[in-house]
Design a protein that fits this description.
Chain lengths: 327, 279, 273
């Protein structure tokens, strides 16, 4: 039977030893002779498994351990404990073999040669990954369609805009057609058009090549557009691992009905909802999806007072994440 | 079964050579990109060694001989030592600045590619400018050959090649050992000037001038003596206390391989402590 | 007087920053100790030092081994006092463009760089110079000054040599305004300074014609002169003569610095970095 698990993380931990520093000059001198060491658990006992062809987003506040987790999954950091299997193979033990099958983009850093034209970096990668010329040309052709990479292939990387550089990095990571692609904050600092192109590209390679994609991001647009599965990390632990719809139902299983009346006298209430807020002639009713349907609530309220306009607000993903971090 | 293994090994070797050629090509492209650099290095490196050699000449004029080594023999020693220095500059100079690479998280890139990390670290940053060190080295060496009445033979040519490879490995291994400390200290210390100063004092002059304790240290513990003194004593037929003759060049190569292997193990141990950047 | 407080703040901040690089401090001490002890062995060997004879016996070129050993310890100390970061600082701020924001500050950028260098060196007095002096005294010899009445002169000439050295470094650093990569230029300066200043081999071991050329260049006034005064090698007249030339070099380099920095800052202002 074919194993469908692309990534399997078991009991993964990473500790850092940090030297505590005291403030001021006297603290600095004291630090020369003795220093208090402190152990920080950046990632502690994480289990995670990702199926082939899935797109998952790993999110969490700054310093939550996302970067450490993704760096262990890509073989950059050696775990303090536990293991990472990519396609059934341990990345720490078989690094050279396993990384042939992964592509990595760290959004804030580039793997391209700063001083030379983009094509030279691709050429080097072609040699490193032993991609034959036909396949290379074919891959490039496909990626050119969405990202327009051929327009910039002769431009030195140092002269590129951030967007062009990230596109370059993404192509560089996909030249050898890896089965897993890791993206660490790929859309950070990019303009709307570039973000759109990148997301389209990511969706496309996922659809066509069944590439498994793991991304970390602070951009909620990335999550809404790309992922069905969301991993929320805080203090080095996975606090949520779920479907995007499920988490909305669980954390925020309510909607808000906003009603605009003709005047602000005798704003009605309803027993199956709570009147959240009244501002002039606008009233906000919060109701549970299980208690009453939106249609019934509108019908019953409009019996009590004549309405001018209605709108239904769902809780946004940012609100959900904020609540989840707070748990 | 055995055949398949050999085939696989040959394939790996061919792959590394292929990538190396690619790296060298990129290094040349970078030189073309910044032509003002070449002029700088063309001046800088020869100045260093020509002035250095002049200094030795003046010192020898003041003190006569140095520990029984004539001026011509010292030139021979100096020349070969600078040549191995130049080779180490081309391939291993990054060891001096490894702290920068560690702190900036440059190893991320090497670790996510299917080649040896140590190989990538040195060859991605191959320093073609090191060639400018070769020129003064070769000039002084040829001068030393004439002055010391060096008689050539095929065996000696082979020995010189072996000892140069060995000496380059010893230097490279030592730079790597120093640089690897930055995995633990996360310091961006530049070991360049210090290493250079120590190497100058210990490889450009006969080791026999130093006290025995120091000779012992530099022969067995930090084998700098093998970079130039022992193999060149052998080549010139100078009795250095321990007479190895031409065999010394072969031992140099072996010592070089051992030093590089030990440095590699130490490097791999350090690499486990690598923490990337920005955590 | 408010502006001086600002520079003092930069100075103090730099001292604190210097103390946070703990491993650099240890690394520097270890490496410098190795270099110093190797140098001591080197000169002992050249002098044909023999344990059975007292120190003072051998003289080469009018210099006893004992003085030579003082010379190398003090040369190590000076190399710390004379370490500059200004050239790298200018280069990196030109390269990453922070030079234009530095120029917006209500302080002179070179004033900031000088304060940083002074702060760093102040920290180095404790981190490096004291350990070097202690280790040198224990393992080589106590590097006592030959004639304590020369102390004021030594101090003055030290200050002048710091000035010359710093201005030279800043001038080389400003090359970065025209060339993209000044690494090679900084190397050239380093080698010239290393070999022509007497920091490794004192000038009196060079033939007269060569030493005379070097006396016309500024390098010798950075290391050789203060060390000469320290070990009492030269006569009073010679010292005063040399100190005059040293002062002249400081003025010349100061003027050159003034002109070049004016031009360089104008260039930055126009280009906007």
């Amino acid at each position: 039977m074919e194993n469908n698990k692309m990534i399997e993380v078991t009991d993964l931990s990473k500790d850092y030893h940090v030297v505590k520093k005291e403030a001021g000059l006297s603290g600095a001198i004291k630090g020369l002779f003795k220093s208090g060491k402190q152990t920080i658990k950046a990632v502690s006992h994480v289990d995670l498994s990702v199926d082939k062809g899935e797109i998952i987003a790993v999110i969490g506040p700054n310093g939550a351990g996302k970067s450490s987790l993704i760096k262990m999954m890509t073989g950059v950091l050696t775990p303090t404990g536990g293991q990472v299997l990519i396609n059934g193979k341990d990345i720490t033990k078989n690094r050279k073999e396993v990384v042939k099958n992964i592509g990595v983009v760290f959004g804030q850093r580039t793997q391209l040669n700063w001083d030379l034209r983009l094509g030279e970096s691709f050429e080097l990668l072609r040699h490193i990954y032993e991609i034959d010329r036909d396949e290379y040309e074919k891959n490039l052709e496909v990626m050119d369609e969405i990202l327009g990479i051929k327009e910039i292939i002769n431009k030195p990387v140092r002269q590129m805009s951030l967007g062009q550089r990230v596109k370059g990095d993404l192509v560089a990571a996909m030249l050898h057609s890896p089965e897993v692609l890791f993206l660490d904050e790929p859309t950070i600092g990019l303009d709307v058009n570039t973000k759109f192109a990148l997301r389209k590209f990511i969706k496309e390679i996922n659809r066509v090549n069944k590439t498994t994609i793991v991304l970390t991001t602070h951009d909620l647009g990335d999550i809404e557009e790309l992922c069905e599965r969301l991993i929320i990390i805080n203090h080095g632990k996975i606090i949520e691992d779920c479907n995007l719809l499920d988490i909305t139902d669980r954390i925020a299983p309510y909607k808000t009905l906003v009603v605009e009346y003709y005047d602000d006298e005798n704003i009605p209430t309803h027993e199956n909802s709570t009147l959240d807020k009244v501002e002039g002639n606008v009233a906000r009713y919060r109701f549970m999806k299980n208690d009453i349907t939106a249609a019934a609530l509108i019908a019953e309220l409009s019996n009590k007072k004549k309405m001018k306009d209605v709108a239904i607000e769902e809780v946004g993903i940012d609100e959900i994440i904020r609540i989840a971090y707070g748990q | 079964m055995k055949n398949a293994k050999i085939k696989c090994l040959l394939h790996t070797l061919a792959h590394y050579i292929d990538v190396t050629i690619c790296h060298i090509r990129m290094a040349f492209l970078m030189i073309v990109e910044y032509p003002s650099n070449i002029a700088g290095w063309m001046i800088s490196n020869p100045i260093q060694f020509i002035l250095g050699f002049a200094t030795i000449k003046f010192v020898v004029e003041q003190f006569g001989q140095i520990n029984g080594w004539t001026y011509g023999q010292l030139a021979f020693l100096y020349g070969l030592s600078v040549i191995s220095h130049a080779l180490s500059m081309i391939f291993f100079v990054q060891g001096w600045f490894m702290g920068f690479y560690v702190v900036e998280g440059e190893f991320d890139r090497y670790l996510t590619r299917p080649l040896g990390v140590m190989y990538q670290f040195f060859f991605t940053n191959i320093n073609i400018f090191g060639v400018t060190d070769l020129i003064p080295g070769i000039l002084v060496f040829l001068y030393g050959c004439v002055e010391s009445n060096f008689t050539w033979s095929i065996a000696k040519v082979i020995c010189i090649l072996l000892m140069l490879i060995g000496a380059t490995f010893i230097r490279g291994g030592l730079y790597l050992c120093l640089g690897t400390t930055s995995f633990f200290t996360k310091s961006t210390m530049d070991f360049g000037q210090y290493t250079q100063e120590i190497m100058d004092k210990t490889t450009l002059y006969p080791l026999s001038m130093y006290p025995e304790s120091m000779q012992f240290l530099l022969t067995y513990l930090i084998p700098i003596g093998w970079v130039s003194f022992y193999p060149i004593s052998g080549l010139l037929g100078i009795d250095s206390g321990q007479t190895y003759g031409l065999l010394a060049s072969v031992i140099t190569l072996l010592v070089g391989l051992i030093v590089l292997a030990v440095a590699g193990l130490w490097f791999n141990y350090g690499l486990n402590k690598y923490e990337s950047a920005g955590n | 007087m408010k502006w001086i407080n600002k520079y003092l703040f930069v100075y103090k901040t730099q001292i604190i920053r210097s103390f946070t690089y703990k491993y650099d401090v240890y690394g520097n001490i270890i490496m410098q100790t190795i270099i110093m002890i190797t140098s001591a062995f080197f000169w002992r060997a050249l002098y044909g030092f023999d344990i059975s004879k007292p120190y003072g016996d051998v003289m080469v070129n009018g210099v006893r081994l004992e003085d030579m050993l003082t010379y190398i310890i003090m040369s190590s100390v000076l190399s710390v006092l004379l370490s500059t970061n200004v050239e790298r600082r200018i280069e990196s701020s030109v390269r990453n463009g922070s030079i234009s924001t530095d120029m917006m500050k209500p302080l002179n950028i070179f004033g900031i760089y000088l304060s940083e260098d002074l702060g760093r060196i102040t920290a180095l007095i404790f981190q490096n110079i004291l350990p070097i002096l202690i280790i040198g005294s224990l393992f080589i010899k106590v590097p006592a000054m030959s004639d304590l009445t020369q102390l004021p002169r030594f101090c003055i000439s030290m200050m002048l040599s710091f000035g010359i050295n710093w201005l030279l470094a800043a001038l080389f650093g400003m090359w970065a305004f025209t060339a993209i990569d000044v690494d090679a230029l900084i190397q050239v300066k380093k080698h010239l300074l290393r070999l022509l200043s007497g920091s490794i081999i004192p000038l009196w071991f060079f033939p007269d014609w060569f030493a005379n050329i070097l006396k016309a260049l500024p390098f010798a006034y950075i290391y050789q002169l203060p060390l000469d005064i320290y070990i009492g090698k030269s006569s009073d007249v010679e010292v005063l003569q040399m100190m005059t030339i040293q002062a002249i070099w400081l003025v010349v380099l100061g003027l050159a610095f003034f002109i070049v920095s004016k031009r360089a800052t104008r260039k930055i202002m126009i280009q906007g970095g």
